[in-house]
Amino acid sequence: MKFATTAGISAILMVAAAAALQLAAMVSAADYPKAETVWCAKTSRCSDAYVDCPAECASTTTPNAKGKRKPNCDAPGSACYDPRFVGGDGRVFYFHGKTNEVFTLVSDPNFQINGRFIGHRPAGRPRDFTWIQSLGVLFNTHKFTLEATKAATWDSEADHLKFAYNGQDISITEGSLSSWYSQDKDIKVERVSSKNSVIISIRDKAEILVNVVPVTKEDDRVHKYNVPQHDCFVHLEVQFRFYKLSPRVEGVLGRTYQPDFENTVARPGVAMPVMGGEDKYRTSDLVSAECGACIFSEAEELKKQGNVVDFPTLDCTRGAAAGYGIVCRK
To answer: Would you indicate the residue range of the signal peptide (predicted)?
Structure first.
């Protein structure tokens, strides 16, 4: 048996290393999108601001979607099924709402999130079976909507998401990591998978994980929904993560984040704790700020406009010498 010499092994390793470096360069050039913005630390000259990055800056995303997330329906801030919420206190409750009506899920001084409910009521049943079909987000002076489109039968190869920003439909290319930014870069929508799953990031306010699903035949059998053949009730599974909430936060879900909130319906022995509030959280439209307990104010947001400070474009070719307290990392 012949053994390779040390020199021969070294040569093979050098060739392999060179090939790996070449492949890495090809991946970074072809697959990594460029970084769009960076956030300035409060100790820097552009304190607590977002600044556009030039082409020299590294990517803020990766070509691998495995690290991306979908809603965890058992985690705090989630709303799934018909619909089952997990409050900020970690306790489960149900809120039935009503078919084709809109309810405020979260209302804070800086933003509001409404949800439209779909469903039906089988003969002889005292209430509707309902699911969350769409979300309306109000922040600053902007309005963003996301909805699950209706379908008679579920097709996993079709995208069932529809988006609009300030009343204008927006299109997001199908494909994992495809993304869309608003002009002010204060909202980002990124696909987690090629279809039907996204993450919505609202700057300094919230992150919303969204997945679109139908009512399956198994769901129908187990829960006795009696779903009609012409509609599989395509709906949203969502999980909210909030960055800043005031102690006064309101809404079907928002109230569970109040410091002194007590869930009085989720008691031992209660199989399906139902929480009320339909009257005070009902609103007229998906992007309406008005409800009996809502605290978001579009007028107050208008007063805040005009206080934005502009900073020059960053220069990532000179490292820390470019100033503004930011170092561009490769």
So the answer is: 1-29
